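Objective 1b: paired records.
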Amino acid sequence: MKLSSKLIVSCQAENGNPFNDLSSVVKFAMSAKLGGAGGIRSEGILRSSRIIKATGLPVIGLVKNYFEDKSVAITTKRSDFINLLNIGCNIIAIDGTCRLREGLSGPEFISMVKSEYKCLIMADVSNIEEAISCANSGADYISSTLNGYTPWSYKDNNCKPNYSLIKEMVKFIKKPIVAEGRISTPGHAKKMIEMGCSFVVVGSFITRPHIITEAFVKEIK
């Protein structure tokens, strides 16, 4: 099943979020479908499975955990990858950074699963070097998801989309580029597509009402 439009909605909820339960996250995904989303990005085995059944949309599945330095990691365990594959995720997101997981770097992990399983992989990266390496290792989609969330890219987490990184990815990589991270307006999303991205992922400013509320409060003040 292919992504049916250029907008992918990330339907996730963290601890402390009032919507952090199975029913609410599935309803977010169903609402995204009603609005015209072409796919859903979902964290966790059970939640992803329910979203697949409830929406019928392509689902980009992942399992989020953390490296020893507390920085976020995306599907770094072989067992998590297999579980996502078994529930029918159309695409599986994998951490494409150089950090080791089960003895392999992100590109090496992607190369391994591509050689052993029939699946589509979205490599989540934080800079252009990782993007190129993952593309060369067989990833089907390259996403800027982790820009601003690795120790060497924290400086980029400044509330603005990283257009310069996207420009480099589009220029140097001949695979579908996915823009994700700090895309908070329809204008941001439109610009990413105009720059050459195949897809845009939006999460917080669609599915996290408290963040949307904070933005309004800050602007009014």
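Objective 1b, second protein:
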Amino acid sequence: MSALAYCLGAWKATQTGLRYAEKQGFNVVVTMDADGQHNADNIALLLEKYKAGADVVIGNCTERGSAGRHIAWNFFKRLNGLSVSDITSGFRLYNSSAICCLVSREATMLEYQCIGVLIMMRNLRLSIVEASVPMNKRTTGISRIFHSWLAVGYYLAYSGMLSFTKAFPTSKNKYINRITRLKNID
């Protein structure tokens, strides 16, 4: 019997890699988009911040994107209390505590890695920092979020609803235990 491959989207593919890393016992994982924007030579910039004590390092490039993208970023940062300047960057470094969070069932329910993932990690009190990195122009594909007004509208509605339901859980300890599957994340 042959195995069938399914396209489940960027976040599910990323989460599959994170689950593999967790099973293998990796302490650090770096994610990159597959569109040529991120350069592996810049992983060293993420590692510098990680070695200084961060749980999550986001490679940011706030020069990229349209005015509309920056308005959306600012709206969601204010709505959620996030202090990350580039919330849609897929160039990230996660330590084992962050990996544990991201392989949880709650993280599987997310559609985008940006806001939902950042909210989960912020609620777990993980240290999230940024490292400024240069980004190349996209060599293939289109932005899943910003390629059309319909896609932008869907992203805004989905992320807005997520923000209201997940940003400030009512039972934080129960939420943390469920996400971490009772593992000690501190």
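The mean pLDDT is 77. The helical segments are 10-24, 43-51, 67-80, 96-102, 105-108, 115-123, 149-166, 172-180.
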